[in-house]
Amino acid sequence: MKRIVLKGGHVVDPSEKINRVTDLFIKNGKIEKIGKFSTRGYKEIDVSGLVVVPGFVDIHTHLREPGREDSETILSGTTAAAAGGFTSIACMPNTDPPIDSIDAVRFIYDRAKNAPIKVYPIASITKGQKGEELTDMIDCVRAGAVAFSEDGKSVANTDLMLNALEYSKMLGVPIISHCEEPSLSRNGVMNEGEVSDLLGLKGIPKAAEEVMVYRDIILSEYVGARLHIAHISTHRSVIAVIEAKKRGAHITSEITPHHLALSDTEVKKFDPNFKVNPPLRDDRELAFLRDDLVKGRIDCIATDHAPHAEQDKAVEFPLAPFGVIGLETAVGVILTEFYHTKRLSLTQIVSLMSTTPASILNLPAGTLKRGVAADITVLDTQKEWIVEGFRSKSKNSPFIGRMLIGKAVMTISDGEIVYSDGV
Amino acid sequence: MNLSINNLLGLEGVSRRDILLILDTARSFRQILERPVKKVPTLRGVTIANLFFEPSTRTRISFELAEKRLSADVVNFSANASSIQKGENLIDTARNIEAMKVDMVVMRHAYPGAPHFLSRYVSSVVINAGDGAHEHPTQALLDFYTIREHFDRFRDLRVVIVGDIKHSRVARSNIWGLKTLGASVAVCGPSTLLPRYIDAFGVDCFTDIEEALKGANVVNVLRLQLERQTSGYIPSLREYREYFGIKKHHLSLLDKSHIIMHPGPINRGIEITPEVADCEDSVILQQVTNGVAVRMAVLYLLSRGLQTAPEE
Asked: Strand pairing partners for B20?
């Protein structure tokens, strides 16, 4: 009988409408109760001055196992996630081989048995992510896949995408769409804009994303399927989702911390740690996206944590692969950019990083409700720290050297402390 | 006088003083090229590696001649960027060359930013001999030298760059430098071959060749890569030649005092008629000669940092 009490923390849980200083009791790995009760028989952890929230949920992570274990493994990625305050993550299927079968889904669960936090596999929409035939979707869902995505690219064949949406309806899981019209983005390495023109780098126009966002919204509304737009990066895409929602479509969207904090001006130094897909947009778009997040037009935050080994990333900018890591910096970036600037409340941030992403993928997470698994994150919102050194096997962060304010200082998964930084 | 820069990566942000110092220095080297013995001992003992990761004939020969006329020791390395991808990466290639105690690196690369990237990893002086569509600073400097030779000024000069601005490193370096020097710059080409965000360059922009050429002192005609048609930027070479090619009758639109430039190699009969390319207002071959002198000046001025730089 393991009993822990987190004493004197500021508990914030939008799902239970809690926002006060109180105690949180954990018993046998579950949340027992919240409030002022006798602490006798409980191991006391003093979290006064700290914030206690439902563990963060990242519905867009790349773990690279199987295939590129030199850049990340399920163990290293989940260790990084725990250090970033995440207790549940969903991993994308673009591994080698891709997650496109019952065996592959089971492999992820098997490898995640010893992970500090929970991992939920997302399976690919088509076999081998080749864009030709649908994955055995029923099989994958039965094995535990929580969504389908071709992440890294769009399903170029529109008819196949329509069938994927139609087929997924009977499974109750969303299709997550990486929206990119390949003929428009071809050979592009950064946002198309003033900076790409000045640098002579081939640009990826915003239209490459927006054309596909509109296509997939039209398709999902046509068959009434559940669609989630991954890493949204333009205001026009956001508006397209909002308008579809007003028509009653069941469509959601996510945005990454880097698309909320950085612009394409960072590329001027040709540092591949600023090469991501979709690309960092221009300053004007960045301001629009930040406003969209604050106004509640974007459903959740997801990291798109994309580790790349040093030898792959430390090359000429156009040759470098797309992607940046983000699990260990996400909450720091969001608190620095939105909480300390008084643009978002803690309740809103917890909703964006825990409650809502959990509900988008129907994950048993994102709440401190009595009786659920004790997946909890303790934040020090005032802690100032410099980004350096990672638990991830890769170091391709665009935030290296930056000072952030706010950090996860303790992460609890199923009632076990899986990460602690000075608490 | 010394340059305020340690490498020549591009002309964006390079000061007027630095550009003029290079042009002034080139003038004395230009005289050396007219002598029977075209060689000076200025860079004796200095080792220069020419790293060409993209095919180039004239720029490579021009640099090599400039280096040899300054008595530098020269090594050449040519490779195709795609073959490099498969093996050793650029950092390792550069570090190996540096480990052989090379003082200066001249680099041509298909990718924008490659020389900037290299300069972060090696302590040798890095000179950009063209990085993708980004910059080609020595080409622009030789263009400026040629302009100055004819007009002895930059202020109040109207320079029109014609052609595929979007993919042109020559255009970018020319725009930055000419603006710094005080010239008025215009670009002209089909709208698909102009940068979509051309406003960021602060130049006048035309799609009508006759409008663009009115009153111009300098017409710099860019080479049209023939594959622009197959990749969908222009409908046909014929249409390009008809509407954007420089022809004899255009010369009357220009200011009375004018020159015609082209960075080469020329597609005769496409972006420029042979008649214009070979007319007495054309300075295309003077550009080539001046190129050697300008590159000698760049190499010499940047080498002056070698003695004072602390050894690792």
From this structure: none
A270: closest chain B residue by CA: B113
Place of tokens 């200011």: B255
Closest CA to A158 of A93, A212, A230, A209: A212
Q: How close, in Å, is residue B113 to chain A by CA atoms?
A: 6
Tell me the CA distances in angstroms from A317 to A199, A310, B90, B106, B166, one per residue in order. Answer: 11, 13, 11, 19, 19
CB contact under 8 A, A198 and B91: no
| Catalytic member of A100, A299, A304, A375 | A304
CA distance B306 to B48: 12
Position A107 pLDDT exceeds 50: yes
Residue B275 forms contact with A (CB below 8 Å): no
pLDDT at B79: 77
Q: How many CB pairs under 8 A join A and B?
A: 64
Give the angle B102-B103-B107 at the CA atoms, nearest 5°: 80
Rounded (to 5) percent helix, strand, coil in chain A: 35, 25, 40
Q: Give this complex's ipTM.
A: 0.89
A132 CA to centre of own chain: 27
Catalytic, A304? Answer yes
Query: Is A347 strand, coil or helix?
Result: helix
- To test the contact with chain A by mutation, choose from B85, B95, B196, B203 the residue with the greatest count of A C-beta atoms within 10 A, namely B196
Indicate the pairing of strand A3-13 with strand A18-27.
Answer: antiparallel
For residue A85, give the 3-state DSSP assignment: coil
pTM greater than 0.80 = yes
Query: For residue range B216-247, what is the model confidence (pLDDT) as tens digits?
Result: 999 999 999 888 888 889 999 999 999 999 99
Are the C-beta atoms of residues A124 and A98 closer than 8 Å to each other? yes
